[in-house]
Specification:
Chain lengths: 91, 378
């Protein structure tokens, strides 16, 4: 079992993403449902940015990536609260 | 209604009900006084204390009855930190302790102390080496670790933590709330806390044990009761009933654990097979016998609790927007597992295979309907 600490959010500005999903103000599981619906819109190895401010999303988007074998790149704090959670499409 | 929320509170054990009723009058006098009925109340209280001490492997004078498990933890944490003030002001806990431990830590921090929280792996288990390293740090006054996690059932490495604490000369507070009565208490604790309603005793009784030689000072105003450890008039009938239940569940534990653990295995095996996109969380084998937790993708915790209640099942959830909180459970967050769609099934004494099978038969349809209602197909 990998020893895993919840990754602290990055403070640097996020790099550009192929698709941005605005889930600000939406409660989990809605941000995850939006991500699952739309991840196939980007090419393989491209990045989707999920903007979310429900605290559950900070844990649940990376957990979804682990379950669905996609890659959680990083989570970047947004200036107005919440995070840009970057996910790379693996398949 | 099938009651699957024993980790919140275990239904009153028949032995507790009987003892409570039998001692409501006899245990009602003030055990601190010297007349006949008072002496009889004191005798009842001291006999309960001796039996509780025997059950946890302590001396009677090390054991106090508190008004709850939470009070036992608060007094245990803050009292030991106060008693050990000269040794240091650093507290070590795990990230998945009960909120009573974390909130006592928050009080310590507000009063100028420091707190280090040791993380857990994906199963919710503390890494013993990481815990040992934290404990060995200069100025550590107290370390706290639960026997088993209350939300996912994973057993913690208490023996290893106790060894590390022993080597560092740091007292270890063990929160045994989820396992006392079900599993033997691991050796090596300095302070022990537990809660009677978790083992089938009445609400309003906790246990606090402080080993001889462990420095402890009450963080509360002076009071003569319970050897100056716990303030307030003792609830003798409830303490007697709590200990009656404890002895009864210990006597039944081997048989009942095997039965409930097999039912938990059934749930752990069947849920991922019957429901798509589900993660069963917590350790599959190093776990409390009666707890199993899983998370369903794309499902709101509140929706699944409501539907299960309608179908006749009382379960709980660590998801946000359930019960009292807008935040997801700190346990699930620390583990890094899905926090939404979370269901904890915790089986009380006597839970039947037929009830578990009925749960497994209604769950797939409930999850499918909730997903369809938000436009998700799996």
């Amino acid at each position: 079992m990998t020893s895993r600490q919840k990754s602290a959010p990055e403070e640097a500005a996020p790099p550009p993403a192929a698709l941005t999903i605005d889930a600000l103000g939406r409660k989990c599981p809605i941000p995850i449902i939006m991500l699952a619906e739309r991840i196939n819109e980007v090419p393989l190895n491209a990045t989707v940015a999920v903007l979310a401010d429900d605290p559950a999303a900070f844990t649940d988007v990376p957990a979804w990536c682990r379950l669905k074998s996609h890659h959680h790149v990083a989570s970047y704090e947004l200036p107005g609260g919440g995070w840009a959670i970057h996910v790379r499409r693996n398949y | 209604m099938a009651y699957f929320d024993a980790a919140s509170t275990e239904p009153l054990h028949p032995a507790a009900r009987e003892a409570l009723i039998a001692n409501l009058d006899a245990g009602g006098a003030d055990p601190a006084r010297l007349y006949g009925s008072a002496r009889r109340a004191r005798l009842l209280l001291e006999r309960a204390r001796a039996e509780a001490a025997e059950a946890i492997g302590a001396r009677p004078d090390e054991v106090s009855f508190t008004s709850s498990g939470t009070q036992a933890v608060h007094l245990g944490v803050l009292g030991t930190l106060l008693g050990r003030r000269r040794a240091g002001r650093h507290l070590v806990t795990s990230a998945v302790e009960h909120s009573s431990v974390l909130q006592a830590g928050a009080v310590h921090q507000r009063e100028g102390g420091t707190v280090e929280t040791v993380g857990v792996d994906l199963t919710g288990r503390v890494d013993p080496a990481e815990f040992a390293a934290a404990v060995a740090r200069e100025g550590t006054a107290l370390a706290c670790l639960q026997t088993a996690n209350h939300e996912v059932g994973t057993l913690q490495p208490v023996p290893e933590a106790a060894e590390a604490c022993g080597a560092a000369g740091v007292p270890l507070l063990v929160d045994a709330a989820q396992t006392l009565g079900r599993l033997p208490i691991p050796a090596g604790w300095s302070v022990l806390a537990a809660s009677a309603h978790k083992w089938g005793g009445p609400a309003g009784v906790g246990l606090l044990a402080v080993r001889k030689g462990t420095r402890w000072r009450s963080p509360l105003p002076e009071d003569e009761r319970e050897r100056r450890r716990v303030p307030g008039f003792e609830n003798v009938p409830a303490a007697v009933a709590a200990v009656a239940a404890l002895r009864a569940v210990i006597a039944e534990a081997e048989e009942e654990n095997a039965r409930l653990s097999a039912l938990v295995d059934r749930v752990r095996e069947a849920v991922p097979r019957l429901v798509p996109d589900v993660e069963v969380v917590g350790d599959a084998t190093r776990r409390a016998p009666h707890i199993v937790t899983f998370s369903c993708l794309y499902v709101a915790g509140e929706a699944i609790l409501t539907e299960l209640d309608r179908a006749g099942f009382a379960v709980s959830s660590g998801s946000s927007c359930t019960a009292s909180t807008l935040r997801p459970s700190h346990v699930l967050e620390a583990m890094g597992v899905l926090t939404h769609g979370n269901v904890r099934v915790s089986l009380p004494r006597g839970a039947s295979g037929a009830e578990v099978d009925r749960f497994l038969s209604v769950l797939p349809g409930i999850v499918r309907r909730i997903r369809e209602s938000v436009g998700v197909r799996t």
